[in-house]
Write a structure and sequence with these properties.
The structure holds 2 protein chains of 2 kinds.
Chain A: H1 2-27, H2 36-51, H3 57-78, H4 83-103, H5 105-108, E1 121-122, E2 125-126, H6 130-153, H7 155-165, H8 167-172, H9 177-203, H10 213-226, H11 233-250, H12 255-279
Antiparallel strand pairs in A: 1-2
Helix pairs in contact in A: 1-6, 1-9, 1-10, 1-11, 2-3, 2-4, 2-9, 3-9, 6-7, 7-9, 10-11, 10-12
Chain B: H1 2-32, H2 39-54, H3 62-88, H4 93-115, E1 129-132, E2 135-138, H5 139-161, H6 163-173, H7 175-180, H8 185-210, H9 217-232, H10 237-257, H11 263-276
The chains are: A mainly alpha, B mainly alpha.
């Protein structure tokens, strides 16, 4: 039972993370390969500040704020670049953030990581059991889903989709493409910080090794597999990938076997990404022409 | 002063390896106009193939093991071409970038599946260092410098005195025009992949001999090669060569200014700066 709850909690956290990337990638056409950095900023803000006694919501909000500032700083110059160069620039930013987490030991405890992150507590409620964690995460997930639903259906969302489909057309209609992209990046980064914060509280231990390019690629895979630019796609992607990832843990494999199974699992992920790109770029859900 | 010279020498040694990676990367980039994110894994595969062939059950002599490693790395490069690049060559830059990212994860974990995640090395006796004018240098590092000098001469010969090399340069300038003047694009494509893969393998083996081997070694070196490529101007072979040396020296001198923990960050910073200031090249674009 606990195991199923654990899987559901991980799925809800990664759904939020994947939804945030989907806003940038699926709806705005921004391939952010450093997305894990914003997840990391959220996680570290919550870990450091909640241990310093600031509770649950203030660190969460500070993490979102820092994430927005960071995305603004990298977005201002990087958004002038062509799509693939934007990807490389954000990838560089992601790795520099990881080095920051690793090297600024006075703040982040460096490679030792931060253990014993407290469970979220607010208004006299302590989220310290698996069912409570699940409820909290589901509430966040549903709220964010609703927020994105409203955002996408709004005029703002329609402009984002127009930019994705045809930048020149959006420009010719007098839309400030650059500004819309920047806003999309900032909103996506703030949501990624929420996911990072929830994750840090749940896992209770974070270290710089968790914020690598591989993590970004796995979330990218969730979005692409589920169907980029759809509202349900990221959730279906997270369900599939996390389900696949965690089910292997369930069997409690001996080290002699897991040494082979884990690389094999990652090989499947890598291969899936390649095959998706070649045969089914629209993913499981697929996007209607007008979506 | 000695410390400065030592850093400079270390930088040149590291740079000569980065140059080999960068030339291969820029060649692919220039000819096919896409960033092969799996290029780092060709570096890693080259190093691991060599490890495979010099150890039991094969225990081949070094020159033979070297040739076999280059051969199998080239096969890997040609498979990337056949199964990933060719089906996707008419897709967007991003589709290609994402699929080579996926391929990079696949190959890295393939190596981990076979050889495990632990750090390995070749157990050469060449790591013993000696002092020249207060600067310590190891035998393998001298081998690295000599090898890269030889390869620079070979590349010069290839690109300016052979039909194959000239055709590659022509394709790098314009695929369409190359086709019009009757170049066999298919054949040259294969030569490009073989050249790039072999350079990656040689660099990987030298790097493995100087430091060690691990499945993740490709990615970080790809980033350095990419920084060198941007410094030299995309598709510019001699620019990439210089770029590699500059990255190597900048890293080893940079750790004086910034903390050594950020050594790998220097290449990223160079990439960001090069991209953001839209400097197409700092060297002559041929």
């Amino acid at each position: 039972m606990d195991f199923i709850l654990h899987i559901l909690i991980m799925i809800s956290i990664y759904s939020i993370f994947a939804m945030s990337l989907n806003l940038e990638l699926g709806y705005t056409g921004l391939y952010n390969f450093g997305h894990i950095a914003f997840f990391g900023i959220g996680a570290y803000s919550s870990a450091i500040l909640s241990k310093a006694g600031f509770g649950f919501f203030p660190p969460l909000i500070i993490g979102m704020g820092l994430s927005i500032i960071a995305s603004f700083i990298i977005g201002i110059p990087a958004l002038r670049l062509r799509g693939d160069y934007f990807g490389i620039a954000t990838l560089g930013f992601g790795e520099i953030m990881r080095l920051f987490f690793l090297n600024e030991a006075w703040l982040t405890r460096g490679p030792m990581g931060i253990p014993g992150i407290l469970p979220p507590s607010f208004f006299g409620i302590i989220i310290n059991t698996l069912p409570r964690f699940l409820i909290l995460n589901l509430i966040f997930m549903i709220l964010i889903w609703l927020f994105l639903y409203i955002l996408i259906k709004s005029p703002f969302g329609r402009v984002l989709k127009a930019i994705r489909e045809d930048e020149a057309a959006a420009l010719s209609l007098g839309k400030n493409v650059y500004l819309f992209r920047l806003k999309s990046l900032m909103i996506g980064s703030a949501i990624a910080a929420i996911a990072g914060s929830l994750w840090a509280h749940y896992i209770s231990y974070i270290s710089p090794n968790e914020f690598t390019l591989t993590e970004t690629i796995i979330v990218l895979l969730m979005v692409v597999l589920g169907g980029e630019g759809t509202l349900s796609g990221p959730i279906i992607g997270a369900l599939t990938i996390i389900g696949f990832q965690e089910i292997l843990r369930f069997f409690n494999l001996p080290p002699s076997l897991s040494r082979y199974i884990y690389p094999l699992r990652e090989m499947v992920f890598g291969l899936t990404l390649v095959l998706l790109m070649i045969y089914k770029p629209q993913g499981i859900v697929g996007r209607r022409k007008d979506a | 002063m000695t410390l400065f010279l030592q850093s400079l020498v270390n930088g040149i040694i590291a740079g000569s390896i980065y140059s080999l990676f960068a030339v291969g990367l820029t060649l692919i980039y220039g000819v096919f106009n896409f960033i092969n994110f799996a290029h780092g894994e060709l570096i890693m595969l080259g190093a691991y193939f060599f490890y495979l062939f010099i150890n039991p059950p094969f225990s081949f002599i070094i020159p033979f093991a070297l040739i076999l490693s280059l051969f199998f790395t080239s096969i890997a490069g040609l498979m990337i071409n056949r199964f990933v690049y060719q089906p996707l060559k008419n897709s967007s830059h991003l589709t290609l970038l994402i699929s080579t990212l996926g391929l990079s994860i696949f190959l890295r974990n393939f190596a981990q599946f076979i050889w495990g995640a632990q750090i390995r090395d070749y157990h050469f006796e060449l790591k013993r260092g000696f002092l020249i004018g207060g600067i310590s240098i190891t035998t393998i590092q001298i081998v690295i410098i000599l090898t890269s000098i030889i390869i620079i001469f070979l590349l010069y010969f290839l690109f300016s005195h052979t039909i194959i090399g000239k055709s590659m340069r022509a394709m790098s300038d314009s695929q369409v025009l190359s086709r019009i003047v009757g170049l066999n694009v298919k054949k040259i494509t294969i030569y490009v992949w073989i050249t790039a893969s072999s350079l990656a393998a040689i660099g990987g083996i030298l790097l493995g001999a100087d430091t060690n081997l691990q499945p993740g070694m490709g990615l970080i070196n790809l980033i350095k090669a990419f920084a060198a490529t941007l410094l030299g101007g995309v598709g510019n072979i001699w620019g990439a060569l210089w770029g590699g040396f500059i990255i190597g020296v900048a890293e080893n001198l940079g750790i004086w200014v910034i903390s050594p923990g950020y050594k790998d960050g220097i290449a990223f910073a160079i990439i960001l700066v090069m991209l953001l200031f839209r400097a197409k090249t700092i060297f002559l674009k041929s």
